[in-house]
């Protein structure tokens, strides 16, 4: 862009967190993307254009989450925030439990990395730390940054993650409804304590889920069972819970995607996804848009247009 100090292209995938039993820990990157072009300038301009999901709702001033994320990185690095022009085309559905806020944070973090390249170097640990400071928890930003299946946790030195490759037999399917769900509302419905047997149940299923996703997809139905959060959130999204229960009764590994209201099915092979779509059409009056997806293995990317580097 004429007059720009630097222009970067950023691509960030959607994510699905929890995956059933892995509450606030497990996340999966999916092949729906936000695309952004971010340019920096020597003046104090702020220009934002948004198309795609949420375009009519996303702020186009300094409160924009991408802008706040870029500003956070520059402040952390002790660098003044330049003028910015951001052109965003959002493919990740907003308010549907597919990590739209995590994608925005990740996009801003990666854009800042590109704009600061050659002056400030940000490694993976720094990216995850900065993103978690903004998002509050790492389960969505970890797969958005790094792709694949991620296990995320807060250790003694801050947020950390482990990326795992998903078995090629796992075929994700996402049902997205027309209505939205507030993450804060969903969290408020969970009790502060749960029975010991439910905690033990989820520990066992979370461990099994890692094995099912990486080695043994035939175990996905048992591995995605949950007792910690989905049933508690059900009253706020009854159609979501109804679809999850119907799919699971038919043998599909269905879970609430993130805080909902979308439903994620982890099919053990692409051929089973169409049967899940047909079942969904028959058991609910709510219109659901079915997305047959792949696991994104790259995570978020940033490319410097001027230099052609990544």
- The number of strands is 11
CA distance, first residue to last residue:
18 Å
SSE ordering: EEEHEHHHEEEHHHHHEEHEE
Q: Helical residue percent?
A: 25-40%
Strand portion: 25-35%
Quick one: biggest sheet?
7 strands, mixed
**Structural class, from helix and strand content?**
alpha+beta
Q: How many H/I helical runs?
A: 10
Estimated radius of gyration: 19 Å
* Spatial shape: globular
Quaternary structure type: single chain
Parts with pLDDT < 50 across at least 5 consecutive residues: none
Report the average pLDDT across residues: 93
Describe the protein.
With 310 residues, this protein is of the alpha+beta class. The protein contains 10 helices and 11 strands. The chain has helices spanning 65-77, 100-116, 124-135, 141-146, 183-188, 196-214, 220-223, 230-233, 238-249, 273-283; strands at 6-18, 22-41, 46-52, 83-90, 149-155, 158-164, 171-177, 254-256, 263-267, 288-292, 301-304. The strands form 2 sheets. Strands 1, 2, 3, 4, 5, 6 and 11 form a 7-stranded mixed sheet that branches. Strands 8-9-7-10 form a 4-stranded antiparallel sheet, with helices on one face. The protein is globular. The protein starts with 5 loop residues before the first strand and ends in a 6-residue tail after the last strand. The mean pLDDT is 93.
């Amino acid at each position: 862009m004429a007059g720009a100090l630097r222009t970067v292209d950023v691509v960030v995938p959607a994510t699905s967190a929890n995956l059933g039993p892995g509450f606030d820990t497990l996340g999966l990157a999916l092949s729906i993307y936000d695309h952004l072009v971010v340019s920096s300038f020597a003046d104090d301009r702020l220009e934002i254009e948004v198309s795609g999901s949420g375009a009519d709702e996303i702020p186009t001033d300094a409160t924009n989450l991408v802008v706040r994320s870029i500003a956070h990185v520059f402040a952390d690095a002790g660098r003044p925030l330049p003028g910015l022009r951001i052109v965003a085309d959002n493919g990740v559905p907003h308010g549907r439990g597919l990590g739209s806020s995590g994608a925005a944070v990740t996009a801003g973090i990666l854009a800042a990395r590109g704009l600061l390249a050659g002056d400030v170097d940000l490694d993976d640990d720094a990216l995850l730390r900065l993103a978690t400071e903004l998002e509050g928890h790492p389960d969505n930003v970890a797969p958005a940054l790094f792709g694949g299946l991620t296990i995320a946790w807060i250790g003694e030195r801050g947020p950390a993650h482990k990326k795992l490759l998903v078995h090629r037999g796992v075929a994700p399917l996402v049902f997205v409804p027309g209505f939205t769900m507030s993450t804060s509302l969903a969290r408020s419905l969970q009790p502060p304590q749960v029975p010991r047997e439910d905690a033990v149940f989820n520990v066992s299923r979370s461990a099994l889920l890692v094995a099912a996703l990486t080695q043994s997809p035939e175990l996905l139905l048992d591995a995605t069972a949950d007792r910690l959060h989905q049933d508690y959130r059900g009253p706020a999204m009854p159609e979501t819970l109804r679809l999850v229960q119907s799919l699971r009764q038919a043998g599909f590994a269905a879970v609430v995607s993130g805080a909902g209201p979308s439903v994620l099915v982890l099919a053990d092979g692409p051929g089973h996804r169409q049967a899940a779509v047909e079942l969904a059409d028959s058991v609910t009056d709510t219109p659901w848009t079915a997305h047959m997806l792949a696991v994104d293995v790259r995570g978020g990317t940033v490319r410097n247009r001027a230099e052609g580097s990544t």
